[in-house]
Amino acid sequence: MPIVAMALVVVLLGAFLWLLHRSERDEEALALIKDALWVEQNLHFQLTSDEDKLERLADALNREQPDLRQFAAMARMVVNTNPAIERLLWLDADGRTRMAEPPSGGGMAVPDGEPGPSPRDDAFRIARASGLRAYSATYRIDPSDTGFDAVFPLHRDGVFAGALVGVFSFEAMLTHHVPWWFAQRYQLEVIDARGTVLGAKSRMAVPGTMTGAAPDPARSHVIPFDPPGHGVALVATAYPTDSNGTRTILVVAIFGLTGSALWSLWSLRRHIAGRLRAEEALRAEHAFRKAMEDSLTVGMRARDLDGRITYVNPAFCRMVGLSAEEMVDHGPPMPYWLPEDLDRAEAAFHDVLAGRAPESGLEMRFQRANGERFDALIYEAPLIDANGRHTGWMGSVLDITERKRSEELARQQQERLQQTSRLITMGEMASTLAHELNQPLSAIASYCTGCLNRLRSGRFDTQEVAAALDKLAAQARRAGLIVRRVHDFVRKSEPNVAPCSLPQVLEDCVGLMGADAARLGVRVELDAPADLPPVPGDRILLQQVVLNLMRNGIEAMARTPRAGRRLSVTVTRAEGALLTAIRDHGCGIAPEIAEGLFSPFFTTKSEGMGMGLNICRSIVEHHRGRLWFEAAPGGGTRFLFSLPLCSESSS
Ligand code: ADP
Question: Where does the chain hold its CATH 3.30.450.20 domain(s)?
Answer without folding.
Answer: 27-239, 296-399
